[in-house]
Amino acid sequence: xxxxxxxxxxxxxxxxxxxxxxxxxxxxxxxxxxxxxxxxxxxxxxxxxxxxxxxxxxxxxxxxxxxxxxxxxxxxxxxxxxxxxxxxxxxxxxxxxxxxxxxxxxxxxxxxxxxxxxxxxxxxxxxxxxxxxxxxxxxxxxxxxxxxxxxxxxxxxxxxxxxxxxxxxxxxxxxxxxxxxxxxxxxxxxxxxxxxxxxxxxxxxxxxxxxxxxxxxxxxxxxxxxxxxxxxxxxxxxxxxxxxxxxxxxxxxxxxxxxxxxxxxxxxxxxxxxxxxxxxxxxxxxxxxxxxxxxxxxxxxxxxxxxxxxxxxxxxxxxxxxxxxxxxxxxxxxxxxxxxxxxxxxxxxxxxxxxxxxxxxxxxxxxxxxxxxxxxxxxxxxxxxxxxxxxxxxxxxxxxxxxxxxxxxxxxxxxxxxxxxxxxxxxxxxxxxxxxxxxxxxxxxxxxxxxxxxxxxxxxxxxxxxxxxxxxxxxxxxxxxxxxxxxxxxxxxxxxxxxxxxxxxxxxxxxxxxxxxxxxxxxxxxxxxxxxxxxxxxxxxxxxxxxxxxxxxxxxxxxxxxxxxxxxxxxxxxxxxxxxxxxxxxxxxxxxxxxxxxxxxxxxxxxxxxxxxxxxxxxxxxxxxx
Length: 626
Hints:
mainly beta; 22-stranded antiparallel β-barrel; five-stranded mixed β-sheet; globular
């Protein structure tokens, strides 16, 4: 494995042009908050970060956010059905719950879910301006759950009015709008949208379509109280309904049923931003609330059960610029989480954290290192370390390296559920290592990067069956209990290339080879691939702006190799490829027609065994700007 990775990396490095007379691109779009928690240029960090701007989101088209995320090397996902179904996003072979998700700075994981992860099936692309993806552990800055990486979503803030609508296969309809005003002293915006589709059967063997409906509304505000102090706030509310399948009598096998779920989410934050001289401060209060309900559907349509998860957070983050190009980034926060369900009484926990990172940042080289301390009311304390660096070896060519530690606190459900909880659980922990080389031409017409990575994770939490078991762990647990029983390793190589082949033609490649394996000593699954982790994942795109009235034509290819659906590696997922063609045509200066055909060759890519997947789909729409 090590030999093959080194050989591949060397080949890519040798194939990458190194023009010594050119300088690296530098523009405002290449700024990230994921490296330190404060604004930093991408060429001043050794961490692997991808930025997906509004231009990319609109070019990809549609409400399905996974089609945008496919352009991130090392990112894969699995879905239990069509649009709106449970969707787990994984970075570098990690678990879905090992991806920390932020929406406008708010942590949006669900404390009531057994795994505590975020369901990307509830997040559409409407109203999103920018997505940043950090690959690799970074709990120094972001704390719990940042084992596989971090995905930060930023919503729209505009001066004017924009609206779009599209319709397509399976009675799919989507409408989105955003309006705002943006001035030096203040900015306000509001956005909203509605999406619906008949979908496909959640059960692959079924014939009844399982649809999805969601409406959402959100807003952002900024008021400059003085030249150095601003009041900022944002909020987002979404209400969705997803039809699912179940295990009906008398056979109790996965098949068509009229069941459905509803999910209501609220994310919000209010705070103050200070920027004066060498000091920058952000202080705020954030709230995330998720309520899930399950219904039998059909003529009875009875309520079955429900879950409520809530987290509240007060935080202070800042940066102080020091002499000689040094800066210190720091922060402290306190988080309160709680959950309850139809079967579980309310349970609570709190987490207190503090971190600091010292960095030296110049145009030619940068180096940063930091530490974080967390104290949780249930499992105790945890210390995380991290460091990264980058150096420009010749103009435009940089070497990057990083080391990061991650941890994930056990969920309240895993700790305190009366039936399955284990109050003695320890946090899951990881160590990750990156080594990469990146080239960017001065004119921005070409960039390429290759990164070797490895992550070792221990104390993985898994469900342990107590059926017919008499162990001490199972005392008081009839069916099963959660325990720290697992270890895993993920290692591989990522390739990211973008090129302007001419002034009208642009192409991109995002590829990753990932070995994600079980390393639990003594386990029957030792050495097996982790479930739903394809070793090869590739996305390529080609965009052509024709000379005919601005008509744009494009094509995307997504390929995933075979993988396994279970830890025993006895159920195989075949993998495959999906081809999409896209087109758009500007009308005057304020309107655009667009359309696409997804899965042109009608080959559904199944990412979860036994579940349905989308075949060929055709969409068309219009976008208006004023």
